[in-house]
Amino acid sequence: MKNYQNIIWIVASIVTIAGIYPIQRHIVRNFEQREKSLRSEIFQATFDYQVNKPDTTFYLSSSLNEISGLTLSPDQQFLLAVQDEEGIIFWIDKTTGEISRRTRFANADDYEGVEVVGKYGYVSNSKGTIDKVDLELGEKVETFKTFLNSDHDVEGLGYIKLRNSLLVACKSYEKKKDKDRKVYRFDLQQDSLLPEPFYSLDRDQIRDLLGREKGTAFAPSAIATSPDGTKVIIISSISSAILTLDLSGKILSAVELSKALHRQPEGLTVDQRGVMYIANEGQGGVAKIHVFKPIKKG
Hints:
The protein is an alpha+beta fold.
């Protein structure tokens, strides 16, 4: 009888523990989700723009349906853009979105990024080759080959004044190596791409900061810097998100992008007044540039 009672007690204990464990697991999971959500809200609140509420939207010419890169002219009066297929820099009126003129610098290629330093425009293709264009003469003056290739799929080009360097953002990764996307630095003093990544974007950390359980890895599609040169802003079209980082690589903000508004963001720049411009490909419709004024704080 005693043995029988012991068996009943053991079975009852197992049943009780088995019932409690799922409850405990559910509580822990809910707590972790709330913690992630709160952390995501904090990181989104620190962003300087209401990135899903544009102040202005420009509807672009069909020539720019495949817009893939965006920057500002040397005098800040025009937006300069490139598109996927043609070796042309488009000069866009900042107040109307109309094309003012074109600078043809090369034959057709897969052009993905554009940046301006002084009187020169720099245009990158998806394989990491960078063309240097004299914007006053309207012609290409030099081409730089780098160690990057189609496996890296270069998608963004920016300029970091404090390092006198271009930032080269890779959408993909080299085969047989880690899958965190990289941003490299092209030193304008040496005219060469430095082998050590400037940033290595931790996909798991970014996913966590965005409050996502799972999802597509953050893969850059455009990159720019703040007017004072102390922050770097990176957009990912494929994961519908935008990050701000300091120069050490610390993530300062992480924000979800509205897929309805930002159907395929491929170009990004910020002018000296802090106004941000995000260019979206047409995706079978009309390409757009959304304009965002910085949030007034205090």
